[in-house]
Amino acid sequence: MKLVVALGGNALLRRSEPPTAENQLDNIRRAAAQIAGVAAGHALVLTHGNGPQVGLLALQAAAYTNVAAYPLDVLGAQTDGMIGYLLEQELANLLPSSRAVVTLLTRVEVNAHDPAFAHPTKPIGAVYTQAEAERAVAEKHWTIAPDGSAFRRVVASPKPRRVLGVPSIRLLLEHGALVIAAGGGGIPVVKAADGHSLHGIEAVIDKDLCSSLLARELGADCLIIATDVAAVYLDWGLPSQRAIGKVTPQALATHDFAAGSMGPKVEAACAFVMATGKRAVIGSLDHIERMLAGQAGTQVSLDGADTPGA
Asked: Which GO terms describe its biological process (predicted)?
């Protein structure tokens, strides 16, 4: 099978942890062990989030006042290199030496006039208390939004239109490589006024929406969105919360999910299933082998049950 596996930024750095190099390496080793378990016998493209990492780099850049802070597209490219290197090394340590692991910095075209630029929704960086968030708004002029019971900075997240690295990814897969690509949703670029040349733009593309587009362009057999929760839940955080098991895209579309977290995952899974007729799964990285086998997570398919599981 040809698989696209999307690792959430919070699967690589847990919400309660400080973003130290040691913590990230520990989580990446854990992620690599899970990914290695499903790599054998499958053509695999691994994407990943970068919200905590790009937020940290943005804070570091803002702290150095001798030069202007680097734009988010450049910081995103830096996180792609860092996370890709760590994933590549840990996966190569676990897989047979005959299985190449390759990291590809991936540009993704977006529309410069996407309405997302006027309405930031993508969370990046650390988690803040309400008092810390209010101070950041006053001092840094950030846009802040709730993230569970806490708060995070949010930035523009335009829709991906074209993954520019697809031919290279196809070539690598044909030669048996495990490919790490489209990190953080890819590096956002837009067409210049001449309609041909491209340049970077200040944004962070949603990793799940980009992964869905990439999976469609590659003709993947399954899209797995691995995060830090076991499934998609209705009434999340309430005493009545319940997991959704097997479900159709049509049934999922009747519910509302948080725009900055589960919403894009559901949208990405549904778009892949509706466009391809293939299966998408949302669930915990710890259950990835069972997710692929159809035994865990929220299984989205055209013939899925229309009622939530217990």
From this structure: L-arginine deiminase pathway
Q: Is 265 a catalytic residue?
A: yes
**CB atoms closer than 10 angstroms to residue 32:** 24
Reference 308, options 267, 251, 223, 268; nearest CA is: 251
Above 60 in pLDDT, residue 38?
A: yes
Express each pLDDT in 142-185 by its tens digit: 899 998 789 988 989 999 999 999 999 999 999 999 999 999 99
Which residues, including other chains, have CB under 8 Å from residue 60's CB and lie 6 or more apart?
none
**Annotated catalytic residue, options 8, 55, 122, 297:** 122
From the candidates 9, 55, 76, 183, which is the catalytic residue?
Answer: 9
Catalytic residue among 184, 265, 283, 304: 265
Beta-carbon contacts of 288 under 8 Å, excluding residues fewer than 6 positions away, are: 5, 34, 35, 37, 38, 224, 226
d(CA 85, CA 95): 15
Residue 268, amino acid = A
Indicate if the pLDDT at residue 200 is higher than 70. yes
Answer yes or no: pTM beyond 0.85.
yes
Residue 305 confidence (pLDDT): 61
Please report, as a single letter, which amino acid is at residue 277: G
Based on C-alpha coordinates, what's the Rg of the chain? 19
10 is a catalytic site residue: yes
The amino acid occupying position 75 is: L
- Domains in the chain, ordered, with CATH? 2-220 (3.40.1160.10)
When pLDDT is averaged across residues 187-204 and rounded to a whole number, the result is 92
Catalytic residue among 8, 51, 207, 283: 207
